[in-house]
Amino acid sequence: MLEFIAEPLSFGFMQRGLLASCLVAIICGTLGCFVVLKGLAFIGDALAHASFGGVALAFVLGANIYLGAFIFALGTALGIGALSQGGRVRADTAIGVLFAGTFAFGILIISRVEAYTVDLFGYLFGDVLSITRSDLITITVSGVLVLVVVAAFYRQFIFAAFDPAVAAASGLPTRFLEYLLLGLLGATIVTSLQAIGIVLVVALLVTPSATAYLLTNRFHTMIFASMGIGCLSALLGIYLSYYLDVASGAAIILTATAFFFITLVLTGRRKKLSEVHWE
Amino acid sequence: MENAALEVRELTVSYGDGRPALERASLSLPRGEILGVVGPNGGGKSTLLKGILGIAPVSSGKVFVAGNKVDRRSRRLIGYVPQREEVDWKFPVSAFDVVMMGRVPSMKLFRRPSSEDKKAVWKALADVGMADFADKQIGEFSGGQQQRIFLGRALAQGAEVLLLDEPVSGVDAPSQREVFGLLNDLREAGKTVVVTTHDLSSVAERFGLALILNRRVVAVGRPEDVFTAEILNEAYDSSLMILNVGGRTIAVEDVNHHPTEHRA
């Protein structure tokens, strides 16, 4: 058993992969609580897909991939806000138009440069075991940055998420907070791309937080539970991926999904039992 | 003369290209008064409150609190309790957390609540009679208790003027009495209160002042002076029936004009 756990750890790429995926799970677990409570899952998925245009463009130009992805994600977030602001286009329509457009742009680019497609597919589906030392540094720096900003605005974010009308009425800069949250969401997604992949990153944002939501009714415990469940899913998922030789991103997400359904069933049963006791 | 606690001058709010939702509404409330705002649905009751708070698109007009024009800072003097359906009651926060939100606008970034903040929250919880239930999640309370907690948040914020949007709609009768009783206590403690409601009889029985709103201010004054058949018929068009039963005048609202009241 011990060997089962220790053997993969002797490889540098496994150490980096485990570390990176835990970091990513912690950031996603934090932002994910806001995503779940504010119903931002669709927009999160959109920012992830939109970032692929930036990944492809930066790849071809030889620029920093994370920077390219972040610019595209942020541009899409601002674009969604601008398009839906005037009320001429609904927000979900604006999301649909922009994310498909920017994602298609990415596909268009990689279809022209076939030699690179294998590397770029790593960003689509994630390959946590190919994370380099410099990837790890990028993930750490941007992750710490995201967490510091969330900590700075923590109470304002919660107030604005719970009750935006009253938050605005009492003088909080709610519009600024909304864009800041979208910016953080973009940064979180971009940070997670290499580990989880564009197609699946929304699941790491939503699933552990949704599981935590079932388990607690206080916001700060929800954040810590969400981080913990995310980390556990990441660790188990990577071991599964190592021993079963399956894609790491998919293994992590399926582990998180399993946790969600187990929690759903257990908390549902507990509720039923307590009802029986009451009668 | 002492400044009015709340003064609204010619406030106009319009959401789109059409007719404004609120046209040149004016009112002046002395400190320690309680005003009931009534009027047909779509008559601009919620819009009046949101216009005062500056969270609706105000196209002209001014709002003064204790003689000062309202800006981002002095807005804290106005406390707001939104309609029940605007709140996500499953949100994972306790009564204490919600009241603490009243302190957030004055907190510095990164700061944890100071002992002063905590003291203010406990005092507000005690003032609204909810100190014993501070740790329960907000969705576990009755409608009346939820209103009390939200009032507690307004108090913790330091509000002198309290605006409540439909605090008793969808709330059972004992809870209604509980909310109106608390509002009266707060009024006696020197707060100035504005409440929108569909319930004309509560306004007539309990409030010192009534304002009838149908996009414009139709009438404002003591309930016995403004709740006349003539004024109510003008304000409600045909959605209110004024009946004379055994010498008493009774106003009956046509519920078909009020889709929000169809909720079970």
Short account of what is shown:
Chain A is an all-alpha fold and 279 residues long.
Could you explain the architecture of this structure?
- The complex is a heterodimer of chains A (279) and B (264).
- With 279 residues, chain A is mainly alpha-helical.
- Chain A contains 13 helices and no strands.
- In chain A, helix 2 (12-38) packs across helix 11 (201-215), helix 2 (12-38) runs antiparallel to helix 12 and helix 11 (201-215) packs parallel to helix 13 (248-278).
- The longest helix of chain B has 16 residues, at 173-188.
- In chain B, the strands form 3 sheets. In chain B, strands 6-7-8-3-9-10 form a 6-stranded mixed sheet, sandwiched between helices.
- Chain B has 8 helices and 12 strands.
- Chain B has helices spanning 45-53, 95-101, 115-127, 143-156, 173-188, 200-206, 223-226, 229-236; strands spanning 6-13, 22-29, 34-38, 58-65, 68-69, 78-81, 161-165, 192-196, 209-214, 216-221, 240-245, 248-253.
- In chain B, helix 2 (95-101) packs across helix 3, helix 2 packs parallel to helix 4 and helix 4 (143-156) packs parallel to helix 5 (173-188).
- Chain B has 264 residues and is of the alpha/beta class.
- Chain A binds chain B through residues 37, 87, 151-153, 155-156, 158-159, 161-163, 165-172, 213, 216-219, 221-222, and chain B through 16, 50, 53-55, 72-73, 75-76, 78-82, 86-88, 91-94, 97-98, 100-102, 104-105, 107, 109-110, 137, 139, 153, 157.
Question: pLDDT under 50 segments of chain B (min length 5)?
Answer: 258-264
Strand order of the largest sheet of chain B: 6-7-8-3-9-10
Strand residue percentage of chain A:
under 5%
What fraction, in percent, of the residue positions of chain A are helical? Answer: over 70%
